[in-house]
Amino acid sequence: MPTWSSGEFAEIADMTSQAKPSLKPGLLAVEDLSIAFKTEKGTLLAVDQVSYQIEAGKTLGMVGESGCGKSTTALALMGLLPSSASVSGQAHFFGEQLFAQTQAQWRRVRGNRMAMIFQEPMTALNPVIQIGEQISETLFLHQGLTGKVAMDRAIEMLDEVGIASARTRAAAYPHQLSGGMRQRAMIAMALACRPQLLIADEPTTALDVTIQAQIVELMLELQDRIGMSIQFISHNLGVVSELADNIVVMYAGRIVERAPAALLFSQARHPYSVGLIQTLPNLKHRQAQLPVIPGGMPHLGSALQGCRFADRCQRVVTQCREQVPALISIGPEHDVACFRADA
């Protein structure tokens, strides 16, 4: 993975804060991850000193609106960032530093021990190769399976993710499957090698609520069966609430709150987290119109000062516009980056 020199990173150092609560080691431990891109208009800091961990067999929900850095973080963990990206920080997978790997080492990890479901299956799947062949190729690359053995295993995977007439569907091309089936095929491909960590990037986006529920149920069932960990990325807190053990809330490239799922939904302390939860439909308290968070995220290429949520926050004070709030512990396993978390 490309990495800039310390001198090249100096221009964005002032945008970041240093204080971070310590994290316990887990299956995946990400520490002070920053990702920047060189653009014609200067440096764009897409991810700013992000730290979190995922324990074996657990699910981390990563939520926030589009452009907050969720997918960029996932691509960094998979070694799939473009050459224009600069990466600082560390990510340890079973104690091994991911960003120090050679391309050969990345290939052994990616798709085998760690797999990813991408946002849009129509762009992630090869349109001119049959579904079964695409899964078979994964099995060949990582497990050395060939011919009928690989195809039979691919068909088993399609059946395992709930695709009816799996042998027939294996001979289909992506455009011949419905949106829900394509997403299930992507899950089958990602799980073919029984990875220890699955990164699911908006796997239910653009699917109707019935299919969304089926996909979530499927992932939970497969997680229970093979014991994998999941990093589930979404802008939809409602979906994340169904499967996450812990939740990280991101805003404009930074983590603003981190807590166990039940604690976040009952005692959210950052105004952005509170706003996201308030936008969820509630059958007990029906509203003619759901609340919204006014405004939008700041441009990450600008000279940001203070809290990035300040312009949209109802609790804002002068300090918020002048200083960057550090992510600090306010209780067991509960961290918040807000000067007015108690307001």
Note down, in words, how this protein is organized.
The protein is α/β, with parallel strands linked by helices and 343 residues long. It has helices at 6-13, 70-77, 103-109, 121-124, 131-143, 147-160, 166-170, 179-191, 209-226, 237-240, 261-267, 271-278, 318-322, and strands at 28-39, 42-54, 59-63, 85-93, 96-97, 114-117, 197-201, 229-234, 246-251, 254-260, 328-331, 334-336. The strands form two sheets. Strands 6-7-8-3-9-10-12-11 form an eight-stranded mixed sheet, sandwiched between helices. A four-stranded antiparallel sheet has the order 2-1-4-5, sandwiched between helices. Strand 4 and strand 5 form a beta hairpin. Helix 5 (131-143) packs across helix 6 (147-160), helix 6 (147-160) packs across helix 8 (179-191) and helix 8 packs parallel to helix 9. The radius of gyration is 21 Å and the shape is globular. It starts with 5 loop residues before the first helix and ends in a 7-residue tail after the last strand.
